[in-house]
TrEMBL record:
Membrane-spanning intervals of the chain: 79-102
InterPro entries in alphabetical order: Ig-like_fold, PKD/Chitinase_dom, PKD_dom, PKD_dom_sf
Keyword Membrane: yes
Bias (Basic and acidic residues): 52-68
Gene3D superfamilies: Immunoglobulins
UniProt keywords, alphabetically: Membrane, Transmembrane, Transmembrane helix
Residue ranges annotated for the PKD domain, each copy included: 259-320
Protein name in UniProt: PKD domain-containing protein
Region described as Disordered: 1-68, 200-243
Acidic residues bias locations: 1-18, 33-51
Alphabetized Pfam families for the sequence: PKD_4
Amino acid sequence: MNEEEDDMLELLDDEELIAESAQDQAQKHTEESTDDSFDDELELDDTEEEPAIDKNVQEQVKEPEPAKEKEGLEIDIRYLIVAAVAIAAILVAAILFVLPAFSDKAPDVIINPSQTGEDLFLYHAGGAPLSEEFLTVQVNGAAASSDKYMLMGGGSWPWSSGTVLRVDTSGYTKPAVVTLLYKPKSTEYTVYTTTVQPVSTPTPLPMITPDQQAPPQNTSPVTPPPASQQPASPEVPLQPVPQTPAQTQVPIVAPVTMGGVSMDVQPVSGAAPLTVQCNDLSTGCIRNRVWNFGDGTTTMKRSPTHVYPFPGAYNISLDVRFCDPEDDSVPQTRQVTVAPSLRQDTIIQGTGKAQISADAKLFFTVKGPGTNIRIAGRDHYLNAGDHVELILGSGGNGDLTVVSNAVLNCNYGNVTMVVNGEEVETGTVSVINIDQYLQFETADLTIKAIAGRDGAKGLVGGQPVVNAAPGQQIIFSNVGLDSYGKLLFSVQDAAGFTFRGGVGSYEVSTLSM
């Protein structure tokens, strides 16, 4: 019993000591706070000190340890970021370095051919170089041996821009088709194909002098038969329009030759629109050629066909550059004369059906900026001086309005637009806004109409000569502008058709049942 009492007394003594210590600390803190308030009253709230705690109390109250879970989460996020960056770097490297190594596409290369005898010279005019290990030269579908082709001038592979590949076609049947195949990976591409013509001894053409009569040419346009030989209704006499004399006879002119350059142009005169065939007859190793047609258009084709829609005199030139610069000479020229096309003013209207023939062509030169044509849903803006050709591929019965030096309507489908010799777009013309043009002409434009229940009547050259009965067919050929610069064609299902313009000839006939 005495021991228990002693323990209780000691415990009470300890509690009293703890209470006295806490009281002393609180009193001390109060005194220190009071002194601080006198020293710096403005910083009283910021400089309060925590009360002193006895070591025994400090042992009982321990500060919490930092959360290890949060630290581990931050480490995991850093690892994820590093991994994502590494994966992105690998993907970029694969796209830039690995995928190109496995890519397989056709090389883009420009090749200009020329032939001398049975040797074919292929000039690399630009583009990707071609390696010998991937190149196969075929002649008439069979692979040629390596001794049949070589780089000129002792050049080494790859075959690059500015060098010439010579292909020997001796021993092959002519014409011989030469094809270049290129297989950089798994796919074989056809890079170029041309034909080597048989070697023949040319027969010199005699020069035509003024006192010599040019022989007739089989390719001259055929003059329509007299009206009396064409089927027609008895009460509707035919009034054919006189043909242009220039269209009935085309002079033959010998080719122009100077040095290694030789050119041929036929015909050299005719009525607008005049189609001219040009041929480069030059021999030797040719690395480049340029035809200039004298109307602002050029081409690098060997034997191009060119249409002169407008009257005038044009100088056609051929500039040839040979593999050996010493063989180069000045460009050769030939003048072509285009006469106006003769047409008579025509006005006709009537019930029935009418349409413009397929492949009719409209030519005009833009006078000022701000003009545009919407074709296939896309607007194409034109500049002053642009040469525009519209090819009505399917023809049809849309509206065509040309008046006051402006093209206001050309609502047709399957129209191909060519600007300055380059094909631009094909589709339906929904908007055409050519406020002013310098020149306008047509080619191969024919209008066919079948008179309806009320027939069709019209004037040609101011004379009421068209009087088609119901069911009869009316054909207007060589249609273009009249003397007032107007070309109007419109078809309405209920009201019939109307036409005003110039025509080269016409006919009225009864359709066979």
